Each structure stands twice: as C-alpha cells, then as structure tokens.
C-alpha cells in the first residue's frame, strides 16, 4: 500500500485498507483536505497499530487492528521523496522451522506430562486399593486369630478349673464322707429314741443331721457351679468379698485339715464388674499356691485382704511360706512355668489367672515379703449403689 505525505493510504491491494490514517492528522491538515477536496467525501479512519519489535528505521514488527482483525505484521516502509509518498509492505512473519520444532516439543512435553500424571494417579489409586484390600485382609486375619485365641483361652481356663477340682476331690470326698458316717450313727440314735417313744429327744437329734445335710448341699451345689463353663466376656456386678467366701468354702476341708490360721480383712461390699466364676478360679489358685508354699511350715498363717486403693479394690493373698526365688519372679506368670515337683502341676494356673485378671482390666502381681510371698490384683471400683 502507498500513503501520502499526511500518512493517508490512498493505494492498497485490499479495499479495506484504503483511506486509512497511518498518522494522526492535525486540524490544519484536515481543514486543507476539506478545502482541496483531495479525497472528495471519503471517510478517513485511523489504522491503529502498536510496534512490538523494531529491526531498523523502516522495518518493525507491529500488531495492527486491520479490517480482518488484529494481526501481527512485519511492516517495511520505503520513502519515495520525489512524490512525498511512502511505500508500505505488510506481511505476516514467517514461522521458522525452529519455532515449529519448539512448538512441537512443547506440545509433546505437555502430552508426556499429562500421561505421566495419569500414570501417577492410576498408580496411587492402585496402591490405595491394594492397601485397603490388605487392611481388610489383615483385619479379617486379626479377628480370626483373636477368636481362635479366645477359644483356646476359654478351653485353657476350663481345663485349669477342672484340674483344680480334681486336685481338691480327695479333700472334698473326705469332707462329705465324714458327715455321712456321723449321720448314719445319728440316724441309728434317732431310730432308737423313736422306738422308746422319746419323740422330743429324737427331734433334737435330727437338728445336727439337718445342718450337715444343708452344708453338704451347699458345697456340692457350689462345686457344680464352679465346674460350669462361664460365657466369655461376662461382665456382671458382683461383690469381691462374696467371691472370697465361696472360694474359702471350697477350700475349707483343706484349711481345717492342715490347721491353717486364716485371717480375713475384707471390706464389704466391694463392688466390681467381672465374672464371679473366673474370679473365684483365680482366688482358689492363689490360695492353693499359698497352702502349697506353707506345707513344710510348723505354723501356717494365711491372710486375705480387700482394700480400697485409688478408686479400685485390691485383693491380696499373703502367706508365711517359702517365698519366691528372685530369679523366678520375672517368669512366674509364663505358661508352663512351675517350681513344683513333676506331676504336681502343669504350670498353667498362674498364667490362666493372669490372663483372666488382664481381661477384666486389672493386673496380677507377685512379690516377696519378710515372711513369705504375697499375690494381689486390683479391679476398678463400681461406685453404683447396690
């Protein structure tokens, strides 16, 4: 295209570029154009452009708001001084092969980044699914093993309980046999009194028979209850002192036979949450161990205490026996650990007792004192009113 000395394009190869102002026209020049009617009544409009880069006095890269929209052009000008015209050549800047290559590399880089991002997200999703599946499998295995261990522990508790009953059977048989013999003699006396018509004396003679039968019935009834397998996880409200009473009832034949001085300091009531049968099993095991430890002592003293300590009830069994060797204190609650002669125990009593107390939220502890050993355990105090 060609512009005159005022910067007005009057020749262009496209009509939309013709009669465009390349430079601002002063008021005097615009008045002169109207006076001379150089372009008749053509409407002149500015051609807005902004130089982006300059390559010399007459060559630059410009962004032009042309008839077809805003476009970047390589603008080259050639002055024609004889006519006071200027020749303008506008062409779009060619895209170099390096630009094409760079654009291709950039596009490829973007695609690769997207692919790697997709792979990364997919891998994270797979790992998350795998971890979730492994966690579910682990939870299932833990629950299965827990059930197996609970079943094994329940069986072990029941076996230890029956073993304790077996070891007490001789003393219990003696305890029952003696009253039966006495009752046979008393019944013979009653029969003789009845034959002689001495009714009142016969009734009085039946009183001790009734007392002995009542005691034997209570003993056998409690033996049956003790041998029963209690449900796992049972939590009932019970008086710890009553548990002591029932355990001493079962061991009463041995206590009297071995002339044990039994001293009780029991706080009543001592309310806790637990399984009465299992707690009784623990206490019987502790009492029997104490009696075994005092077997060779000429004077035997057994002390059972229930004390309130820091919102808990502590039950302790203290003896004046041989005590526990220091090297055995750390292993005394291990399964199958025993210091008794072969055939006199499997070493499961204390291990089972420890597990029962731990399951109820307590801890079984042992230590020596000046005259023997003491075992104790603590359980949370249940403060509700009876």
UniProtKB/TrEMBL annotation:
Its EC number is 2.7.13.3. InterPro entries: HATPase_C_sf (IPR036890), HATPase_dom (IPR003594), His_kinase_dom (IPR005467), HisK_dim/P_dom (IPR003661), HisK_dim/P_sf (IPR036097), Sig_transdc_His_kin-like_C (IPR004358). The keyword Aminoacyl-tRNA synthetase does not apply. Gene3D superfamilies: 1.10.287.130, Histidine kinase-like ATPase, C-terminal domain, PAS domain. The chain crosses the membrane at residues 103-122. CDD domains: HisKA. The keyword Nucleotidyltransferase does not apply. Residues 171-383 form the Histidine kinase domain. Keywords: ATP-binding, Kinase, Membrane, Nucleotide-binding, Phosphoprotein, Transferase, Transmembrane, Transmembrane helix, Two-component regulatory system. Coiled coil: none annotated. It catalyses: ATP + protein L-histidine = ADP + protein N-phospho-L-histidine. GO terms for molecular function: ATP binding; phosphorelay sensor kinase activity. This is histidine kinase.
């Amino acid at each position: 295209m060609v512009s005159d000395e005022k910067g007005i394009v009057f020749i262009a190869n496209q009509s939309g570029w013709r009669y465009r102002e390349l430079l601002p026209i002063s008021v005097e020049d615009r008045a002169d154009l109207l006076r001379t009617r150089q372009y008749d009544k053509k409407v002149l409009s500015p051609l807005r452009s902004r130089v982006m880069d300059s390559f010399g006095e007459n060559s630059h890269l410009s962004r032009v708001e042309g008839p077809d929209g805003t476009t970047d052009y390589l603008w080259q000008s050639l002055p024609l001084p004889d006519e006071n015209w200027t020749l303008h050549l506008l062409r779009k800047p060619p895209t170099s092969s390096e630009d094409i290559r760079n654009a291709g590399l950039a596009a490829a880089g973007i695609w690769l980044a997207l692919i790697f991002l997709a792979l990364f997200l997919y891998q994270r999703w797979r790992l998350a699914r795998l971890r979730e599946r492994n966690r579910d499998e682990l939870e299932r295995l833990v629950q299965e093993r827990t059930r197996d261990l609970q079943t094994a522990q329940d069986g072990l508790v029941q076996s230890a309980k029956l073993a304790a009953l077996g070891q007490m059977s001789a003393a219990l048989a003696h305890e029952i046999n003696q009253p039966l013999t006495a009752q046979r003699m008393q019944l013979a006396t009653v029969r003789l009194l009845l034959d002689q018509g001495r009714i009142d004396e016969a009734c009085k003679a039946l009183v001790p028979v009734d007392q002995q039968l009542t005691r034997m019935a209570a003993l056998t009834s409690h033996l049956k209850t003790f041998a029963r397998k209690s449900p796992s996880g049972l939590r009932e409200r019970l008086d710890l002192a009553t548990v002591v009473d029932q355990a001493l009832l079962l061991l009463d034949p041995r206590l009297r036979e071995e002339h044990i001085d039994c001293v009780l300091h029991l706080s009543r009531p001592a309310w806790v949450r637990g399984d009465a049968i299992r707690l009784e099993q623990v206490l019987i095991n502790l009492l029997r161990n104490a009696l075994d430890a005092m077997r060779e002592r000429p004077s035997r003293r057994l002390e059972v205490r229930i004390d309130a300590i820091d919102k808990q009830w502590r039950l302790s069994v203290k003896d004046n026996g041989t005590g526990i060797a220091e090297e055995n204190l750390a292993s005394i609650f291990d399964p199958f650990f025993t210091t008794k002669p072969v055939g006199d125990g499997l070493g499961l009593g204390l291990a089972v007792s420890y597990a029962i107390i731990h399951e109820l939220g307590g801890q079984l502890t042992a230590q020596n004192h000046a005259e023997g050993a003491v075992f104790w355990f603590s359980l949370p105090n249940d403060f509700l009113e009876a």
